[in-house]
Amino acid sequence: MTAVTAPATGTAPRPRGPRGLVWVMLRVHRSALLFWLMLVALFAGGLLWAYGPGADAAWSEYLATGCGSGQPSLGCDVSGPAYQRYDYALGLGGAVMGLVPLFAAAWAGSALIGRELENGTARLAWVQSVSPARWLAAKLAVPAALLTAGMVTLTLVHRLVWSSEGELRHTMGWRAWHDDTIFLANGTAATAYALLGLAIGALTGLLLPRALPALAVAAAAELALSNWLGRLRPHLWPPDLATAKDDYPETVGMIVEGGALTREGAHVPIPDCTGEPGCLTDRDITGFYAYYHPTDHFWRLQLVETGIVLAIATLAVLAAFWLLKRRTGAAV
């Protein structure tokens, strides 16, 4: 009997399964990936519940109390348990979307960049035919894609709830389109802030290549920058002007500035005239004014703020690549 032997090929068999920087990164950070997918699924589901059964239950509860019939009732301005659950689901969804940039900055500064520089795993990757530039590009591109997909999903679901239940919110009057969490959750700015958090965290991780210090500084920097941009928001687009002679003008929207008008048209603060007859006349006040943003300014403010946030995020990414090149020299 003759034994048959296969000729040697001289090459080792290729390993099966996905390979490359993207796959390695997903495996290393699979806990963060699973947490993000769970977070998106959980709060998207909560918002969809508010869109369907939650809103239906709130309306049924409202009508069951005798409200909505056109007859005045003292109990119609008090929310019941069903509306409170609906409002809680909507508010919690927007609040979580507002916290995602903070989470992204802390995670990127610590686990994504700082820890790998601190432990030396980044340098190990650089000596295995992976350049520092490719390493950082993968570190930023994969989370950016996942953050964008998740935030866009949450924004679309939040807008679905917000646009379909306007009458219910108008009846209770508890929320407005210009509230910080609602404004961000209903537009492109929520995704832009999440990407800004990722960029700030990556830059901080390179500046402070230690996990815990990078986490704290990145979170603080993202929080300070978000608060500053939030205060800047009313001034990103020219507001409308409303005036009235006898009382403060009635406006619906985001108030930017208000006060009193003199005979010469000067804008002055409204004086406290309690118990002083003729106070306004003595101070030469002939009317009142208010600068405000109406509802149709939403997308103008939203897109301008989104552009500013993305521009800052781009500068942070460029600074991160420049810093990496400076530290690694010709290896980049």
Number of domains: 2
Largest sheet composition: 4 strands, antiparallel
The CA-CA distance between the termini, in Å, is: 60 Å
Order of helices and strands: HHHHHHHHHEEEHEH
Mean pLDDT metric: 86
Got a strand count? 4
Judging from the principal axes of the Cα atoms, what is the shape?
A: flat
- The poorly predicted ranges are 1-10
The number of helical runs is 11
Helix content, binned percent = 55-70%
The spatial strand order of the largest sheet comes to 1-4-2-3
Specify the structural class: alpha+beta
**How many whole angstroms does the radius of gyration measure?**
28 Å
β-sheet strand percentage: 5-15%
Structural commentary:
This protein has 11 helices and 4 strands. The chain has 332 residues and is α+β, with helices and mostly antiparallel strands. It folds into 2 domains: 21-64 and 79-237 and 298-331; 240-295, no CATH class. Strands 1-4-2-3 form a 4-stranded antiparallel beta sheet. Helix 1 packs across helix 5, helix 5 packs antiparallel against helix 8 (189-207) and helix 8 (189-207) runs antiparallel to helix 9. It is flat. The protein starts with 20 loop residues before the first helix and ends with a helix. 29% of the residues are buried.
